[in-house]
Design brief:
Blueprint lengths: L9 E5 L2 E5 L5 E6 L1 H4 L4 E5 L14 E4 L4 H15 L1
Antiparallel strand pairs: 1-2, 2-3, 3-4, 4-5
Length: about 80
């Protein structure tokens, strides 16, 4: 996925789980694996440094049940927007 995001992002970790930071070094997106906490879905969460603002209300977390090409495409779009 990182190769598909044209804006530079840096792979890092947040509480031992995968995360990506923008060029300023601020974490913009992090992943929480369902298996670590026995949840029924994994979570992709965006921090306040992410550029996803859409008026007065927008989602900052997404539930992921299964990885697919369609999910990957949406995640890449969100990460591109978040780090822009």
């Amino acid at each position: 996925m990182k190769q598909q995001v044209t804006t530079p992002v840096a792979a890092t970790a947040r509480y031992g789980m995968p995360a990506y930071a923008n060029v300023a070094g601020k974490i913009v997106v992090c992943f929480q694996d369902s298996g670590k906490f026995n949840y029924r879905y994994s979570t992709l969460g965006f921090q306040d440094s992410a550029n996803l603002d859409d008026g007065d209300l927008w989602p900052v977390s997404y539930a992921l049940r299964k990885w697919s090409p369609a999910v990957e495409k949406k995640v890449v779009e969100l990460v591109r927007a978040a780090v822009s």
